[in-house]
Structure formats: C-alpha cells, structure tokens
Specification:
This protein is an alpha+beta fold. It has helices at residues 8-28, 47-63, 95-99, 171-181, 194-203, 216-228, 253-263, 272-284, 291-298, 302-310; strands at residues 36-40, 43-46, 68-71, 85-93, 106-113, 116-124, 129-134, 139-141, 144-145, 158-161, 187-189, 208-212, 232-234, 247-251. The strands form 3 sheets. The chain has a 7-stranded mixed beta sheet, sandwiched between helices.
Length: 344
C-alpha cells in the first residue's frame, strides 16, 4: 500500500519489495520444491531469487523506464545504461537461510542518484516488517520513526556480523577480530542477511554491525537506513566512502567510535604498522593452538594485557611428567611342579 506522504519513487520501491516478498513467502511454504544452484562454494541461488528479482525490475521499469538497474543476479542487463538514476537490488538477501527454512532473509532495494543513495527499502517478508528511508527525511519501520541505539558503553552492546564462508576468505583474521570484540561486548550475533543486519542497527535492535566481502547490493539500502536513523557507516578505518570497498562497519555514533580502533588494523586500507600489529594478533589467536589457550588469549581485557606486559615474568613451573602406561604381557601360567603347593 502506497502512502501520499512518501516520496513517489519510494512508494514504487515498496510496491516492488512487497511483490518480491509475496513470491518468497509462497515458495517458503514448500522449500523442498525450490530448485537450487550454486554460484560458488557456499554461495547459492534459487529460482526464487530470479523470480523475485524479475518482479522487482518489472515494477520499477514500468514506473521509470529510463532508470538504470544493478541487480545481484542479472547485473546491468536491464534498464538504461547511462542514467543518473540506478536501482540497486538484492532480491533475496540471506538465500542460504531461506533454503534451510531459517526465517532471516529480506528484500533490499535502493535508488542511487548520481552516485548517492537517496531511497531505501528493506523488507522482511517473514515478519512483514518494512524498513524505509528517504535522504533527509529520516528512517522508518512500519511507518514508525526509528533511531539507532542510545548505548554508549561497548560492554553493554549487541554486535552483529557475518562470518567468512567463501574459499579464500581470511578465516584466521576473523578469529582475531572476534577475539578482540567478544570479551568487550555483551554479545556477538551472525544472523546471515547483511541488509537486515543494517536495518536492525537503524532500529536500535543491535548496536553495531561489521562484515567483509560484501557487495554494493548488500549494503546500499541499509546504509541509508543507518544514516537517516542517526548512525554512522563506513569501512573498518571509519572512512565513509565504503559502498564498493567490500568492508562495512555501522553503528550508533559512540559505539562506532569505539569499534573503529579495534577493526582498523584489520582493514585492507590500514597502514603498515597496523597491518603488522594485526598479523601479530592473528598469530596469537592461531586456531592450531589448544582450545584452552585460545580461550585464555581471547578473553584478556585491555587492562589485563597491559598489566601482563608491565609485570615481571614469573618463574615457569615444572610441567608434570605424563604418566606412561605400559601394557604387560601375561603368559599362560606354567604347570605346577611336583614340589609346589596347590594354589588356594
């Protein structure tokens, strides 16, 4: 349903998102019947992705035939190639969740005008939650104004992220990042749909979000929701020009400011000294070490780390010698001689 108070282009985007959501909801009634293919390892696409993308593009180009299209599945095949107005579409963000029946996925649509995001829709069809934003007019969830969290202490915050899942992703780096963040925050979550993660930051449901390896259609709509809700978004070093840099950090301003120093050393844009520090940290959280050692290193706070550096080294205790188990071979008992007493 369109609203007369919304920007006309946003109304069209809402119509397109709801059309895609209806397709997704129908398919979710019988997941086993959905045809699935694999773009690369752990990166899936379904007939539902294609059908919902087609519905979105048809709705948008019917209203604005001169606009351009950038979609996850079809790229720039549709729409005008040289338009200042480009719709950025992810028809089903969270496909892996969807094909498992895990109800965390969404439709994401954004309008870029001369390179700047000006309209945004993120629609969660499982809950019928509609997140919208127009540049300069605020962000809304189901027509109710939303704002980012008011928390100011990282220790009280819930942070969402996305784990690496592709071949070639830097798993050790992510372990180091989690080792830095988990003991400092109230919780770390991995819902599995970046656009919805950003919408939740905008609504104050979580306090921050970070992830690497994201494409522009994953973050375009969510980025406008966050900024219109009073939050900050950028790359791991805090720079705001992040849309095509494949690393994203978003959060309430005070929390964003506390996370940037932790993540900046892991950014591909970090300086040499920061990259060296990150390499040392990654080696310290080497997954080849024992689980007990990993836990101990991961839960050391900043003050404890400093105290350890300043305190004199205690003499190492001698490690207890492991007990050696020896298997004794038991031979068959010999027959008693005539002079031996019988056993009792």
């Amino acid at each position: 349903m369109s609203s007369p108070n919304l920007h006309p282009m946003l109304n069209v985007a809402i119509k397109a998102a709801r059309a895609a959501g209806a397709i997704i909801n129908r398919a979710a009634l019988d997941i086993e019947a959905v045809r699935i293919s694999q773009k690369q390892v752990n990166d899936f696409v379904t007939e539902v992705d294609h059908a919902s993308e087609h519905a979105i593009i048809e709705t948008l180009l019917t209203a604005y035939p001169g606009h351009g299209i950038l979609a996850e599945e079809s790229g720039t095949q549709h729409g005008a190639r040289d338009s200042d107005y480009v719709w950025i579409i992810d028809p089903l963000d969270g496909t892996t969740n969807f094909i498992h029946g895990f109800p965390v996925y969404c439709v994401s649509i954004a309008l870029s005008v001369r390179g700047k995001i000006e309209q945004a829709v993120v629609y969660d069809p499982t809950r019928n939650d509609l997140f919208t934003a127009t540049k300069g007019r605020g962000a809304f969830m189901n027509e109710r104004r939303i704002r980012v969290s008011k928390r100011t202490r990282l220790a009280e915050c819930l942070i969402s992220t996305g784990f690496p899942f592709r071949t070639g992703d830097n798993f050790k780096q992510y372990l180091a990042i989690m080792a830095d963040l988990m003991p400092r925050a109230a919780g770390l979550r991995r819902p599995g749909a970046a656009a919805l993660d950003l919408a939740y930051v905008a609504a104050g449901f979580s306090d921050a979000f970070f992830e690497t390896g994201l494409n522009i259609w994953d973050v375009a709509a969510g980025s406008l929701l966050v900024t219109e809700a009073g939050g900050l978004i950028g790359n791991f070093t805090g720079e705001p020009d992040f849309l095509e840099q494949r690393e994203c950090l978003a959060g309430a301003p005070r929390i964003y400011g506390q996370i940037v120093p932790l993540l900046s050393q892991y950014s591909k844009f970090a300086n040499v000294d920061d990259k060296l520090r990150a390499s040392d940290r990654i080696r310290a959280v080497d997954p080849s070490r024992s689980h007990a050692d990993l836990y101990a290193r991961s839960t050391v706070g900043l003050s404890e780390e400093k105290a350890e550096d300043e305190a004199p080294a205690a003499p190492a205790e001698a490690a207890p010698q492991p007990r050696k188990l020896t298997r004794v071979r038991r031979d068959a008992p010999a027959a008693p001689s005539e002079g031996d007493a019988p056993a009792r």
